[in-house]
What does this fold into?
Amino acid sequence: MKAYSGGASDPQSAIMTIASAGISLVGFRHISSPLCWLLTMDQNNPGRLLFFKRWVANPFRLGSIVPSGKALARAVAQNIQCEPGEYVIEYGGGTGTITSELVKKVPPEKLIVFELDPDLARHLKKAYPQVTVIQGDVSKVKDLLPPGVAGNVGCIVCGIPMLLLPDAVQLAITEGMFSVLKPGRFFLQFTYSWFSPLPRERLGLTGKRVAFATANVPPASLWRYERLKS
Ligand SMILES: C[S@@+](CC[C@H](N)C(=O)[O-])C[C@H]1O[C@@H](n2cnc3c(N)ncnc32)[C@H](O)[C@@H]1O
It folds into this structure.
């Protein structure tokens, strides 16, 4: 298991990020607008304000008050598997922190990003015009993918807060993943949880933590899951 460092580049952004994460952890939803500006005023990360606004609108779907940091994004990109000609799919692109590292390893025409939130999907389309951004629900992945992609997917990166979802939805999403992945391949899931964010046995999965991004705020783990061989 690798540990990744890096992250907040200056003291102001570190303080803002820690304060934001603290509020996220206690689930404080109704924040006044001046505080909102304080928490999101970071010249180096213009997507953070948009992310925060969408979190206020839908905290459970977003799952975090701040987007992932660079250290986690790098850990994710270093752990993907993608052979020439294969696609990589990102679930829940948000403002594109993870996408920004994936495009360094995957040809843009082979990267597909799902984002349910219309404002965030619009932001991603503008920021990554060469990447296929699908505004839609990942539980309908097979129906929404362009022709020729299902079955030719090397790896899926999942940023959706799966821990907050009911068992039946977790099952539908993971089954959907294996219906489009190449046989024998895995998906990556990042989480703030100290434990597996998915009930492996109930979902028929085998999984292990492959990285821990200490510099992410809050620190995040990266898990790799495969289908349990029967
Ligand atoms: C924790 S945020 C992660 C965003 C980004 N990947 C990052 O790491 O900063 C989860 C994202 O998943 C999106 N999302 C949640 N449920 C979804 C679903 N069923 N289908 C597609 N996107 C979804 C949310 O709108 C949000 O942008």
